[in-house]
Amino acid sequence: MSANGKIALVTGAGSGIGRAAALALHAAGYAVVLAGRRAAPLDETAHLGQHADSPLLAVPTDISNPASVQALFARTRDAFGRLDVLFNNAGIGAPGVPLEDVTYAQWSAVVAVNLTGAFLCAQEAIRLMKARAPARRTHHQQRLALRTHAATALGALYGHETRYHGRARELSARVYLGT
Known about the structure:
Layout: E1 7-11, H1 16-27, E2 31-36, H2 39-48, E3 56-60, H3 66-80, E4 85-87, H4 104-129, H5 135-158, H6 162-177
Parallel strand pairs: 1-2, 1-4, 2-3
Helix pairs in contact: 3-4, 4-5, 5-6
């Protein structure tokens, strides 16, 4: 299981904030499910955390695809039986062009990952968490997940300033880690 008996799932765990959060949770004793689009970066994150006592499970996932998200949470349930923390971090940015030059396809890709993906993961996490947690608490977590990732998506689309995008992600980290 895990050193502290808790299970976390981190999306976007192959690099950046997601990797840092996954390794921090792992160092704190969590068993961590690593989700992301590419297997190689997830495996690298798992390799970086090998020294700890808790397991790391890499699961390549496209969070914009409902079937892929369902498979991710089914794998989590099969491996650990439950979920305690969702760090809903995966996201992409639009190209650094003025808003009027962003194509519909680029807009749709950002929305699919940053909003729909966050929604799908929150929805599946809540289903898995409800078996253990009061509904009021999980409903509150769902609202926070959608609110923080809406800010992340808007930051990626409107302001290509990493400062705003980073602050939205930092807020997301604080919501889920309780800091």
